[in-house]
Design brief:
By secondary structure, this protein is mainly beta. The protein contains seven helices and 23 strands. It is elongated, with a radius of gyration of 26 Å.
Length: about 400
């Protein structure tokens, strides 16, 4: 769309009927009012929010704080809505009150490790969530004092606080690329005040989150599973890579029990190139390329609380979809199914025994989408590798 003399504002472009269909590209995931940030209870403070990232129940933002029109310091703000933590605590017979504790680790640049600390989050009715702001410094500029309405929010275990070990990394806020997080209930039961033991503490650490790395070529080696036990917020804005640059992780007898499934042979090995594991904004989302060698099988399995999409990019094979999962197949006549090469098959399902399936021929461009409760699997029937990209996410 031409813009006369470059004077058309973004809002005018955005509201143009020609572009209305693309609003999804620009639509904000949340409206951020100034009142949401702690120090704006005083007109003397302003924030320059440089990045915002959301992940499940979590929002993290970073940027700069200005006082009386001059730069004061950098900040990091954590917001958490605690839906999963509420359930963890409820299992222990307690309720989440108005505060909780976050474990926070900052990861500057490309560094794989960084300092960590425990900080307290307080419930904020403005955003209906728990929050804390980590400032680079709580000291006012020489010759000035903090406004009393903001000063009473500052200090250890307050809504505006400082972590000494974070300070060197917060001086260059743009270089602070990642933040690891986990959340737990307060160390004391409220309102009664008795201490909660470490053994009985409720945690939300992304439900024993792990990711895959090709540390060894041995199929299904536990060395390739890296336990994270935390959420990862990544401020990176873009990625570029080619699947061939990623070393695959090898798996033996994928989704099959050796004593029940004749396909569960020692040589039934498939490969997965894990393209994205922790980068998406939703909880537990994977995007990977799967390679199934000729004659090999990814066993049939059921998804509970998760959904998965297979998109075939190379080779030929047979995908399995449980009878009744796709009504369109059920509505076909026998002749229509035969014309498409669709036949019935009984397949062993991982952990659930034999079930009735439709065997579906697949080739490049074929797609299998399985919702929670559905069952699927795939076999390479051709003479060359069968490849597909798999996109899995929890609902």
């Amino acid at each position: 769309m031409a813009v006369a003399e470059g004077k058309t504002s973004f809002n005018e472009i955005f509201t143009d009927p020609w572009n209305a269909i693309f609003k999804v590209v620009f639509f904000p995931d949340r409206i951020y009012h100034a009142q949401y940030l702690n120090a704006t209870r005083s007109d003397r403070y302003r924030y320059n929010v440089q990045e915002v990232r959301a992940y499940a129940d979590i929002i993290v933002m970073k940027g700069e704080v200005y006082m009386d029109g001059a730069f004061l310091c950098n900040f990091l703000r954590v917001e958490y809505r605690a839906a999963r933590l509420v359930e963890q605590i409820r299992e222990r017979g307690r309720f989440l009150k108005n505060e909780l504790i976050a474990w926070v680790k900052v990861l500057p640049g490309d560094e794989q490790d960084g300092p960590s600390a425990y900080v307290k989050l307080h419930f904020d009715s403005w955003i209906n969530a728990f929050q804390v702001e980590l400032w680079e410094t709580l000291e006012p500029p020489p010759g000035k004092n903090h406004d009393f309405t903001v000063l009473d929010m500052m200090g250890n275990n307050r809504s505006i606080t400082r972590v000494k070990s974070f300070v060197p990394h917060m001086r260059n806020i743009k270089a602070l690329k990642r933040v690891a997080l986990a959340f737990r209930e307060s160390d004391r039961d409220l309102p009664f005040g008795y201490a909660i033991s470490e053994e009985n503490t409720g945690w939300d650490n992304d439900f024993a989150r792990s990711h895959q790395e090709p540390r060894t070529n041995d199929p299904s080696s536990p060395q390739n599973t890296i336990n994270d036990n935390n959420y990862l917020i990544n401020f990176q804005r873009g990625w570029y890579q080619h699947v061939d640059d990623i070393v695959p992780v090898r798996y033996r007898n994928a989704m099959m029990e050796a004593d029940k499934n004749p396909d569960a042979r020692d040589d039934n090995i498939i490969e997965m190139r894990w393209l994205f594991q922790r980068e998406f904004a939703g909880s537990l989302i994977f995007f990977h390329e799967v390679t199934v060698p000729p004659g090999k099988v990814e066993g049939n399995h059921q998804h509970i609380g998760s959904e998965e999409l297979y998109f075939i990019t190379q080779g030929q094979g047979t995908a399995y979809l449980r009878e009744g999962d796709d009504p369109k197949i059920e509505a076909m006549t026998d002749a229509q199914r035969a014309a498409k090469g669709i036949v019935k098959a009984t397949r062993e399902v991982f952990g659930l025994g034999p079930k009735d399936f439709w065997a579906l021929p697949v080739r490049p461009g074929s797609m299998i989408f399985t919702k929670s409760g559905g069952m699927h699997g795939i076999r390479n029937e051709g003479a060359t590798e069968l490849k597909f990209v798999a996109f899995l996410y929890h609902q």
